[in-house]
Amino acid sequence: MAIAKILGIETEYGVAGGPDFDPTTASSIIVNAYAQQGRTRITWDFNDESPGTDARGILGLGALAPMIETHLANTVLTNGARLYVDHAHPEYSSPECDTPAQATLYDQAGEEVMRRALQVANETLPPELAISLYKNNSDGKGNSYGTHENYLVSRKVDFSDVVRAMVPHFVSRQVIVGAGKVGTETKIGEASRADFQLSARAEFFEEIVGLETTLKRPIINTRDEPHSDAERFRRLHVICGDANMSPVATFVKLGSTALLLAALEDGGASQFPTPPTRPVRAIHEFSFDTTLRHAVADDSGLTRSAWDYQDELWLLAHRYVERHGGAAVASPEETRQILEQWREMLDGVRDHPDDVADRVDWVAKKRIVEGFQSRYDLPSRDAKLRAIDLQYHDVRRDKSLAQRVGLRQMASDEDIRNGVLRAPEGTRAYFRGECVTRFPDDIVSANWDSIVFDVGHGPLQRIPMMDPTRGTRELTGSLFEQNSTAIALVAALNG
Amino acid sequence: MTEQERIQKQRTERTHEESEDVSIVAKKGEQLKGELDDLLDEIDAVLEENAEEFVRNYVQKGGQ
To answer: Most buried residue, A36, A253, A466, B21, by CB count within 10 Å?
Structure first.
């Protein structure tokens, strides 16, 4: 049986402005601004962080363990998320969610957190130093930063099967969930002469499998840091995705990937289409081709376009849901929505792109870029077109172009505002969020798999949370009702 | 009605239907173009004024 696909998204936001135009300073101001306006001065605990651990069990010579910057601003939010400064970017890591729709809502809650932080920060800064934030993946000059998805996967699945099964999806899903980009910014991109790409992130990938996330980026990242019981779980850390402004695109990106991982757990890797012989070339070439006709060969000589791959993978997911149900991923209704939207977007990008401009980011962006280009007779890649690309991702509502293109919404504004404050109820994020909300003065630090309490006497008390599927409202809600102080809660947990 | 006339009538009807389809498509196309024009007006109004400088100044340190 497939295990519950607990999932979430971590997003590094692009940052401009601030004192001395220093991005690290600006990022710290953003995180601190949010921490000051809420009760979020609880710091992150790095005890269990080991981003250098490799899922393949061996550490390649070139694969240096990423550094953790412990001196930078770092907080836990009442919704169970982590807000911090990572590599000169403010980053929001959503709480663990138990369905793709919920993870989409908490991704949007992250945008709202950044919007509020920005407002508070800019009230303290002179106008010429005002900060702006962008939910995107590159600066157009060759510098990229990530939007990473995380999925809980059973340790029983061999890692080589994860690679074999998931490479086809990761190279091809950009046809429906790519964010789109004006121009190119790497050597390989320049050589393609593409004026518009499906994906913002694809051209930065140089390896098929690897541990790195900042250099020589791999399509499949092997960081083996489950933040949970390593005997039972893996956390698949997917680094090749784009930051989506379209909630339906985020939903389909998460839902399709989660369904395919569940299908892999229940039915093995052999049911999946064979990966392209050259996956890195495939992810590049698919991104450079907005006609969606370019096909690449697999080892048997069979050629497929990104669209063909997605068509096969949709059928696989559809069959999986028919035979096994999709309970590991979501309710029957939500699973049906994933398959329906995935199908509509896939047929739409090929047959009637205008019909899916309300859901597919690259289609929505390309439409306004080309509209502007023809209205003012601009050359390809003109600064105005690049400005449209950048401003599509602006976090501020009054500046954001994504806010204006008519993207179909999923959650209500009220639900998103609620998601800023309250944690998901069906994962351990509930326990973390409740503790941070109720006992902020008694918590020394928290991280994904534990919370450390200082109850005033005796040693600090670490409460482990090694199973992401526990610590739910169902399992711990009554504990909070019965114990109104941190001392009582810790005693009850230790009793 | 002779066979010839019936075929003629069917042909005329079909041509008529087709021309209706074409006009619906054309109408939809015009509507889409109108919507896009309105959207481009709106974008024009909020787009950063000095695009050149705005794009040039946006420089990030690489991340993950």
So the answer is: A253
